[in-house]
Write a structure and sequence with these properties.
Strand content: 15-25%
Structural class: alpha/beta
Order of helices and strands: HEHEEEEHHEHEHEH
CATH topology of the domain at 9-56 and 110-211: Rossmann fold
Strand order of the largest sheet: 2-1-6-7-8
Largest sheet: 5 strands, parallel
Helix content: 25-40%
Shape: globular
Distance between the termini: 20 Å
């Protein structure tokens, strides 16, 4: 069992918020990578007095092993491959086919989670990108590159746990990288993502609907976030 300095996503979000306490008063923008990181992003945004949105990126899995990332694609169609794609001899037809499939999924996800809410502008402000973990770093790297193209004043990468390989990939792409735990290379770890599409919609879409008068506020009982921390159990491998 891996010893981590937190018990679950909620505690991890609290620790990340303390590490980023200097951003309070700046009204930063916190971007969560669906699905697992969105509850963390919500908690982090609340702690920092930040705006909340999502950034959609999907890992491109290896042929026959979709959990092993050979790269990632963002919702604008930009593809970034890592060196694993070369090792495995993955051809361009496979990459383009997978990217097209994933783009269709991301388009549907944005419509489901955000409805007609416009994306929040990133230019000239501090942007924090949050994921609930990074194994290869492909997804986070793709997200950071996508945000950087929007010209934020400052770009922060926030992770509760990541491999050394993932951090080596992410650090050059961000102005600051916060990571709470880095397991040794010999340890295989994973987390189980249990965030439902319904809770995602409630977290992301409902506040915008209320703010714009499209829906009346309704008190919802707070649902505790379930998760498989400490990592090391079977589940969806973070990227």
């Amino acid at each position: 069992m891996i010893e981590l300095p937190f018990q679950d996503r909620a505690e991890a979000a609290g620790r990340l918020a303390r590490a980023l306490a200097g951003l309070r008063g700046e009204r930063p923008l916190v971007l969560g990578i669906p699905r697992g990181a969105v509850p963390m992003a919500r908690a982090l945004a609340d702690e920092l007095g930040a705006d909340l949105d999502i950034i959609l990126v999907k890992k491109i899995g290896a042929p026959g092993n979709p959990e092993f990332a050979i790269g990632a694609v963002d919702e604008h169609g930009t593809i970034v491959l890592n060196e694993s794609a070369g090792w495995l001899g993955v051809d361009d037809d496979y990459v383009q086919s997978e990217a097209a499939r994933l783009l269709a999924e991301m388009k549907a996800r944005r419509a489901r989670y955000r409805g007609h809410a416009p994306p929040i502008r990133m230019a000239g402000r501090t942007v924090v990108v949050v994921d609930d973990g990074a194994a290869t770093g492909a997804t986070m790297a793709s997200a950071l590159r996508a945000v950087r193209r929007q010209e934020p004043a400052r770009l922060v990468c926030a992770l509760p746990v990541a491999s050394r390989e993932a951090l080596a990939l992410a650090r050059p792409l961000a102005d600051e990288t916060i990571c709470l735990a880095t397991p040794p290379p010999s340890v295989r770890w994973a987390c189980t993502t249990v965030t439902s599409a319904r809770s995602m919609t409630r977290t992301l879409l409902l506040p915008w609907q209320i703010a714009t008068g499209k829906r009346r506020a309704k008190v919802q009982p707070r649902q505790p976030a379930r998760c498989a921390f400490p990592w090391g159990r079977t589940g969806t491998t973070p990227t």
